[in-house]
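Researcher: Last one for today. Full complex below.
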Amino acid sequence: MSRAVDLRSDTVTQPTAAMREAMAGAVVGDDGYGEDPTVAALEARFATLTGKEAALFVPSGVMGNQIALRVLCAPGDVVVCGAHQHVIGFEMGAAARNAGVQFWTVDDSAGLVDLEAVDEALAAEADHQVAVRAIAVENTHMYAGGVPWSSADLAELAARAGPRPLHLDGARLFNAVVATGESAAALCAPATTVMACLSKGLCAPVGSLLAGPRELMERARIERKRFGGALRQAGFLAAAGLVALDTMVERLAEDHRRARRLAEAFAEALPEAGYDPATCRTNIVSFDHPEARRIVAELAAAGVLGGTVGPRRARFVTHHDVDDDGLERAVAAVARLRV
Ligand SMILES: Cc1ncc(COP(=O)(O)O)c(C=O)c1O
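Model: Here's the assembly. Have a good evening.
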């Protein structure tokens, strides 16, 4: 049987030949002493791209989010957040353990947060309730199906937040860049801090970046050390990250095109799901179905791997290592579903 079409996540992507070459030749130093020129170059490049004063290379997206909460909040603070965001549901309760924050969740089932619910959370202070310290958003919104936020939507949220900082979980920020046609700097302008992953659709083997005001990033460097995330000759990883930022962004459009084709196949095969394929604007096909687990199991038996992100929510993610042939095999398997 031919190799499985692996649509479980864009994190399964392999580093490209150009990345392997850049890693082999990377000039490195001890980043614990601030002496790795390749890490410094990657951090500077990301800060420029996002229009922030400084950036920090971190081992993972989770660590980037967690450090952001530590530098923006104090224990007991409340963070307003979409109910399905990664920082709430998929980080093993880390925010409670590491930053001691409490989330006030608002509806985000369509990807963007309900602004009226945000207003209510912010106003609750006048009714003897806890004051909101910060807001966290996700662009693209993974659970909702990779929904991209525009800078106008983010600016509207930031305006409502007033002086409160906005943390942007941009694990797939560059998918949003490609889908909206806006620059990373424009999408990050309303946010105080932004995290983006290099190791998802951009294919780098390891690493994420956190950017923001210089003073906050200096504190973030200390928090990274506390998490055990200060690395030594990390330039080997940063070298792949630079190739990712320089060469792997525009091609995300191909992943988006394939995801839409797959979304249409699911919508046709499973009309009872009421899934609108037009909501699939980046690389994530995600929909509710009472038999989501069976659908995933049946497709796996046919050599097409996906997953569930909720008891009734199926998810399939396109990426660099699934080409048109693989995608067509997935589409054919979806058409044969017998759920
Ligand atoms: C939206 C979002 N944020 C954060 C992360 C965490 O990234 P990492 O797996 O690198 O820790 C993920 C990972 O899938 C994600 O989808």
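The domain at 5-12+251-335 is CATH 3.90.1150.10 (Aspartate Aminotransferase, domain 1). Residues 60-62, 65, 86, 138, 142, 169, 171, 197, 199, 208 surround pyridoxal-5'-phosphate (CB under 6 Å).
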